[in-house]
Amino acid sequence: MLGNTSRNAQAALCASVVASALLIPTAGSAAASSSRPTVTVNAVNPNTACRSHGRNYVVRTYFRGPNKYTLRCGTGSWGWKHIKAGHGWNNTMNKKISAAIWSGKWNGGGYSTWSASCPTRETFRTKIGTPAGSNDLRTAYKYTGRAAASC
After folding, report:
1. In whole angstroms, what is the distance from residue 60 CA to residue 41 CA?
2. Can you name the residues that pair with 130 across neighbouring β-strands?
3. Is the full-model pTM beyond 0.85?
4. d(CA 61, CA 12)
């Protein structure tokens, strides 16, 4: 009888492992990536890369579902150089851009994040589209305007 109990427990354990493997999404699946923003990890430091590469060099890649948006070195009027000079660049800015693109609302030319308060207020804005590409990040900045939405 003890042998059957051990076999039953082993069979139940195997079944639960198989069921878990079927239910847990893999890292590359849409279900696995839908819970948080995804930023590709570029090993490149934009400050260093943009000194030695041209304006079309990609320093960051952001995703919104299957859509890919790139941040290029750019110029003083678009891309990473523009964001750094006009709005500042650091890890927080990178995370805000990622969050806005991943889960923000369309603002007519990019994506924006909004406050959770009522009425909601636009807090951060991105603009998409550059001379180098239609899915390139042109600019990103903290929004201080009065745009509000009803609850």
Report:
1. 8
2. 133
3. no
4. 44
